[in-house]
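RETRY 2/3 - previous attempt timed out on the joint model. Re-submitting the same 613-residue input unchanged.
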Amino acid sequence: MYRVESSSIREHERRIALRDDNDKTFTIRLHRFALVGKGDAIAIDPEHPRNVFTVSKENPEDLIRVSPAFSDENEARLGARRYKLQFSEILSREDNEDLLYLEQFHYKSLGVDLDVEDRKLSSAGGRRAVLLMHLIDGRSRTPAGYIELQMPLLMVKPRHELFSAGFEHPERPIAWTDWDQNAMRKYVNAIVRIARVVVHPEYRGLGVSRTLIETAKRFATERWQVGGVRPLFMEISAEMLNYIDFVSRAGFVLAGKTEGNLTRIVKDLVSMTKGYEVTSGIMSLQKKYLTHLERYCAETGKDFAAVLKRLEDVTRADDPMSALSPSEWLHLRQVLRFPIPYYIAGLDEPTRGFLKQHVKCGTTPKSKRFSPGNVSISISGLKAVSNYEIPRTNNVRLILNCFGIQATHLNNRVVGPLDIRASSGNIIFIAGASGTGKSVLLRALDPQQWEQTGSLVIEAKSRSRYSASWLRPLPEDIPIFDLFAERHSAAMALSALSNVGLSEAFAFIKPFNLLSRGQRYRAMLADLLLRNDPVWLIDEFCADLDPMSARIVAHNVRKHVSRTGRIAFIAAANHGHFIDALNPTQIIRLRLGGEATAMTFRDYCDEFQTIAS
Ligand SMILES: Nc1ncnc2c1ncn2[C@@H]1O[C@H](COP(=O)(O)OP(=O)(O)OP(=O)(O)O)[C@@H](O)[C@H]1O
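RETRY 2/3 succeeded.
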């Protein structure tokens, strides 16, 4: 057995200096985030020195593997396609670069991103573990996300309240009757915290954050240790969990909200200015807040006492966030910490049982969901005829003469006659080459167009009444998140935007006219998801999107239509890359001249493959 004397990181490697029983020292190299700290007992397999373990403090027979590093595989499914997901610790220079690349997609709101001071202060060595996720698509291997584990903070209110119930592990020497300072210091290492969950924006909406969290749970159970103690609980708290619950499907339960600092920030700042000891919280963090406020006063010429008074009023308001003016928010948000949801999971049976018995909250209350009830459509003999008077310009006459056309009117059938029946939760996909009448059929399905006269005449023998809606442009100058959150709620806005694969914070805060075409399309789709219309008419489906985004959007639209019981008529000329993810109930295939064939998706696939082969 060896003791760890010291460790240092160089790029993707960690060098560990070990001392043996005869006081001899030597160095081994491990991967960058190898969970080894000063003072740890280490065992190395003499026959296979690559096998490195730390030794459990509770049971010397229990060896906790460090090397070879952790790796795992899983898959993500989109329609008929499966993508392999590979998880690993940081093993190479490329992995390190992938991590740096992915770090740019982390927003503070996605995880509790502690300040550097916090990291240093969160007990011995601030241990971290990072699991990278790569997505394999054919021959390409792309960095798709990562999850970071850290040591927990000592004091977290909801955990404190929960653990006050007392706990006794049936097999391990971990038990407390009261979660007091003593128990806290002794057993805090039995908790591991998810500090970040980062998914590349292109792969959001694919449901991979759950897979990341489940993998992290396996990793923590097999490999995490601090001071030779394996964890029993895993926790996460994040602002985003207020709006999107991405953890309960991975076995986490909501145990309450963190305290934030609203109730004590002013008191602490006053104490600091008077040179008193601050009673709670992390000292250097308070110093940072004080420096920040002093700078704010210097820059704006405001009086410090007046700013403190204003801060006091704000923190006492019913909704402190809205009480701040935009400029105050810009400066003071760095000083104020709002309560955020705290979720916890058990890593073995006894701890899961404990949480089942003692957790009161459970999950985030579900936000209001759209539910149109039952809707059905029945149309027989639907027909669209183009009726167009031919102008007699010289050039048109040239064409008429060349092609021997005698008519004065173009009176041709574009689509139909066609019978259409559809009920709640179904997608009817309209396929066909360019110019075969896909858009015209969608128009013919819109009851608002039935009465209109013009160059397109829509007729039917009989049709049921319903109301239908289209994608429509959004106001040009309002950040799209503002628009959706004001009309609905922040939670619903975030959920709709992530359903359409638009999960980039920078896109949320831009107005419609600054978005790319594909982003605009997805924003309009999110708008449709949020509106209350029972029947959708969607043209040029995902035409501006890359194949992967189109598949994610198709997959989520399918889920949404089934869940909310809408009917969606969706048209696209190019659909080979997403049609299986959309999984339509029926396909109407159009041919030039008005011919329309309705078939099941399965029959269409068979025919499609025959054509393709
Ligand atoms: N308002 C209209 N009046 C008369 N004819 C029309 C009208 N709108 C479309 N058409 C005609 O109907 C035919 C089908 O057009 P439509 O736009 O439905 O094709 P599409 O299948 O959606 O093609 P694409 O994939 O290229 O978008 C075309 O010949 C077009 O000129």
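The mean pLDDT is 87. Closing ticket.
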